[in-house]
Write a structure and sequence with these properties.
globular; 4-stranded antiparallel sheet; 10 helices; Rossmann fold; alpha/beta; 248 residues; phosphomannomutase activity; 7-stranded mixed sheet; 11 strands; Hypothetical Protein, Haloacid Dehalogenase-like Hydrolase, Chain: A, domain 2
């Protein structure tokens, strides 16, 4: 297939890397040296640019990939240049934003966990990332919280409470990764990046992601009619599915 006709678009955490880890050299070389020769390649992640760059071998990621969409595409890079930007404070307004953050912090003060660390609310361009344990926890504490959360549904219960408290804010909640969930305006999930991509002339857009079940942060784009979705279990599975798709 012609590179201009096909785009392979990737989630980062759990798809190209292990959660919050850096990409393995084998996967990186495969994408840049083989996949990119066959089609256009892009990244779309919920994290900000700094975190995505950290996982993907530095700021040069915007030159290595044809498209890079941090924060679900509210920040947009094409061929190494920024081509679009949106932010949540302008959309929600400061009063609504503070009411929401204040409620989150008050709620978390009542939640008892095995451990708590720091940075419970991370303000991003297009979303609020909320972590009951705190984003400054260690990798071991991350792993332990993930297991604890699977049993006690800490994040799921918190989202239910936020929906009841703020029914008029028109927010979407999405659980992704091991320790947090995102809150963002309706439609500002990963499908946001498709606003740019659908005008780029691709015959097919293939999306690869691991959190594709309902409530996961890949669910909306995986099920969008504009893309062909591929559910993966990790970086090696992504590689295997790409080899089959592109006959590599």
């Amino acid at each position: 297939m012609s590179k201009k006709k096909l785009l392979c678009l990737f989630d980062v955490d759990g798809t190209l890397t292990k959660p919050r880890n850096n990409i393995d050299e084998e996967i990186y070389s495969f994408l840049i040296d083989k996949v990119k020769l066959e089609c256009a390649i892009g990244l779309v992640g919920g994290s900000d640019f700094k975190k995505i760059a950290e996982q993907m071998k530095g700021d040069d990621v915007i030159n290595k990939f044809d498209y890079v969409f941090p924060e679900n595409g509210l920040l947009q890079f094409k061929n190494g240049k920024e081509v679009g930007r949106q932010n949540i404070q302008r959309h929600m307004g400061e009063d609504n934003l503070q009411s929401f953050i204040n409620f989150v912090l008050a709620y978390l003060s009542t939640v008892k966990l095995p451990v708590k660390r720091g940075t419970f609310v991370e303000f991003r361009t297009g979303m609020l990332n909320i972590s009951p344990i705190g984003r400054s926890c260690s990798q071991q504490e991350r792993d332990e919280f993930e297991i604890y959360d699977q049993k006690h549904e800490v994040r799921k219960t918190m989202i239910e409470n936020l929906r009841k408290q703020f029914p008029d804010l028109d927010l979407t909640y999405s659980i992704g990764g091991q320790i947090s969930f995102d809150a963002f305006p309706y439609g500002w999930d990963k499908t946001y990046c498709l606003k740019l991509l659908e005008s780029e002339g691709f015959n097919e857009i293939h999306f690869f992601g691991d959190k594709t079940d309902k409530g996961g942060n890949d669910y909306e784009i995986f099920n969008d009619k504009r893309v062909i979705g591929h559910k993966v279990t990790g970086p090696l599975d992504t590689k295997k599915q790409l080899e089959a798709l592109l006959n590599l």
